[in-house]
Amino acid sequence: QVQLMESGGGLVRPGGSLRLSCAPSGSAFSISPMGWYRQAPGMQREFVASITFRGITNYADSVKGRFTISRDNAKKNTVYLQMNSLKPEDTAVYYCNAAPSLWGQGTQVTVSS
Q1: Which of 15, 13, 23, 18 is nearest to 81 (CA)?
Q2: Which whole number is the average pLDDT over 47-62?
Q3: In a 10 Å sphere around its CB, with 0-12 CB exposed, 13-18 middle and 19+ buried, how is residue 66 labelled?
Q4: CA-wise closest residue to 4 among 111, 106, 88, 92
């Protein structure tokens, strides 16, 4: 069964950094756009960033200039989300997505002093 395995979440102070990883199993995603979404308590899941196979990226306005999405096509299309200058409002469960509808289990990111 094809899966997306996220890692890298945790607790960080405001202004700190974290890097999330998403490692797909199987080769079905070699050309799929992939992305990150997040869901805070009581809120709907929202788009964070995406990247195409060719490396074209897109970001939510709330994370532009702070987050960077990247993709290693040589490593089974592992996708990373480098998060810098983290704010308390970035606290959420972060989910990896392989277009159109495959999701990981989520990884918690908590930004708190």
Answers
A1: 18
A2: 96
A3: middle
A4: 106
Other CB atoms within a 10 A radius of the CB of residue 16 amount to 14
Q: Could you tell me the CA-to-CA distances from 100 to 11, 25, 34, 95, 111 in Å, in that order?
A: 30, 16, 9, 13, 29
Sign of the alpha-carbon dihedral angle for 83, 87, 93, 95: negative
Token duo for residue 29: 């995603």
Both structure tokens of 34: 């992939």
Mean predicted confidence (pLDDT) in 3-18:
96
The mean pLDDT value of the chain amounts to 92
Q: Is pLDDT larger for residue 27 or for residue 41? A: 41
What letter would DSSP give residue 89?
G
Looking at residue 85, the DSSP 8-state letter turns out to be S
* 99 has pLDDT over 90: no
